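Typical record was shown:
=====
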Amino acid sequence: MLTRRQLIKASAATGAVAAVSGAGIALADGPGGAAGAAEEPFALPLQQARVLRPLTAGRGRHAAAYDVYRLTTQETDVTVLPGTTTRMRLFNGEVAPVIRATRGRPVIIEQTNALGVPFSMHLHGGHVTARHDGHPDNEVLPGASRVFSYPNQQRASSMWLHDHSHHAHSENVYYGAVAGYLLTDEFEEKLPLPKGRYDVPLYLRDAKFAADGSLVYAMDGFMDRPTVLVNGRPRPYFEVAARKYRIRLTNTSNERAFLLQLGEGDEMTHIASDGGLLPAPVSARMLEIWPAERQEVVIDFSRYPVGSKIVLSNKLAFPGEAPEVMRFDVVRTAPDHSRVPDRLRPVPDLGTPTVERSFVMSFDAASGQHLINGKPFDPQRVDLTPRLGTTEIWTVHNTDTRFGIPHSMHVHLEHFQIVDRDGQAPGPGEAGLKDTVTVMPGKSVRFKLKFTDYTGKFMYHCHLLGHMTMGMMGQMEVVD
């Protein structure tokens, strides 16, 4: 059980980032964290995320074709740091495996929990029924199984699977129990973006390792996780051809934010975020990505001579940490017929808002709890009841100026459209649909969302997982 002092320390640690794009972040002048990771950067090749194959593909009597997967969350010993063994909690014993799905073709997953703690599988970004959303009430207990059905009737986007149990979620995510879920559709497939082997998902996170290679977890360890992993490898190198690549970035860290720079500030073309493609591509010299967010870029390596080595670095590395995230090594030429169109995908019309709601995110030092509208999470309490078919405006205020604590807001069931930040229109990199948005201390953000298709209980919460553990979560019941 965490002490009150540990809770406050964990909360205050997240004040290490304070007010350059999006939420507006830069490294604060505070004391440094732990010494940087001991391993040499770029010693290991990138491990490409393995695409899972369905066990069976069936056709229901009254339904379209569907794919069936079996996912088991289990403890597995893997090699992360050379010469050591790390015990992780993984799906099917693999680090960040990937399901590739197609709109209109449902996916059915039988999830078995072989861990010693509860697990409630949540498709982050998924538009699914309440029963299959991974509500904490629907935890899969150790040794049990549950079937999840994902209809895949939403627009193409990069999503991911992770735990949403009531108490074990933070540790389960930290110990590696995540998987990718990449949904495509006919609209996206017709665009001439890079495809196949040139469409590469990268799962970023931070970690701390003991001398024997074991992962070290502490709720208050946010500033002491100096090793950056990409697809489970520490600061790897990735051999690429001199052509364009679509790079799908997902931040699976508990609390770590990244501000990514390619080379010396070389151009990346930002094409998508949480809810899929942006309305138009955006030239980016820096790319901000907070926990649970997805950002997609196209990088054109044809501008570099074969033999070039280009480092992707994190400009938010704490003092004493190595800034390198990974390195791209240009090793060959290749034909390239891909391109990024001038227009990508318009934002759908979410309708005219008829309801406005306000959410104040704050930290209570007296209790050591993070609160929404002055209340910690209570599974017996329903905080709001949106009506199906209604469009709402949500305003999220972060009042944690004393400790300088950022917060995020993640809404289950629906993607949303950011209207403004402190009255200013969002930048072009936030012009698409989102499901997670970060709000800096003393700032506010407004967004619009429409409740469609499904009734029942769904969550909304801060996706800095320590904050969620300490109470920053609410429950809504969508009604007809």
